[in-house]
Design goal:
Elements lengths: L1 H5 L14 H14 L2 H22 L12 H31 L2 H6 L5 H31 L6 H25 L3 H17 L12 H8 L2 H14 L6 H25 L1 H4 L1
Amino acid sequence: MTGVLLSPGEVVDEFRAERSPFSWLLEREVLRYLRIWRYSLVGPVLSTILFVVVFGTVLARHVDGLGRFSYGQFIVPGLLVQAVVNVGYFNGTTSLYEARRDRYLHCVLASPLRWGEILGALVLASMLRGILVAAAVLAVAVPLTDLDVARPGYLALVAPAVLVVAAQFGIIAGAVASSLDHVYSIESLVLLPLGFLGGIFYPVNQLASGWQLVSELNPFFWLVQAGRTGFLGSADVPGWAALLVTWAFAAVLSAWSAVIFVRGRRLKS
C-alpha cells in the first residue's frame, strides 16, 4: 500500500483550452438575443417595415421635390440607420446594464479575459445583431420601394462605422445607467429626438437656415446622410464629409467606452 502511494503519478500534458474565452463570451452574447429572436430581431424589423409601408406609400403622393427618387426610396436609408442604432442601444443596455445589476459582470471581470476582449465581444455581438436586422429590413424594403445601391463601395465603408457607433452607444448607455427608468429615459429623451430630427423623413436643405444648423449639430443627421449617400448616391451634405464625421463619432465613442472599461468603476457600481 505504501509503495502504491509513493509511486510517481502519471504525467499529464499542459491544459489547453479548446476555445478562447473571447469566443465563449461572444457566443453567449449572440445566443442571448437569438433565444428571444421574436422580440430582439422581429420587433425592430417589423416596426421599421411599418414605417416604410405607411410613410413610403400613403404619404408618398403628398411629397415632392425629391428629384428622381420616390419618397419610399428617400426614407429607407434613414430608417435603416435608425433601426441599427435602436438595436445597438438596446443590445448594450440589456446586456451590460443587466450584467451590472445582477452582479454577473463581476465574474466576467474576474476571469482571465482582458478588458479589450470583453468590450470587443460586446461590440461584435451588437454589430452582428445590427447586421441581421438590417438585412431583414432590406429584404422587405427593397422590393417595396425598388431601392438600389448607387455607391456600394462607399456603403461598404459607411456600414461598419454606423454599426460601431450603434454598438458603442448602447454599451456606454448600459455602463452609465443606474436603473431601468434611466435606460428608458435615455431612449425617450435622447435617442428618439435625435432620430426624428436627423432628416429621416425630410430633406434638411428645405429647412430654414437656423434649423439646418440645428440639424447639422445632430450626430444622427450625419449617420443618416452617410447611409443615404451610399444608397441614393447623394444627400444633403458631401459624401466625404458624412463618411468622415461618422467614423469620427465611431472613434470618439470607442475611446469613451474603452476609458469606462479601463477604469472599471462604473462597471462595478
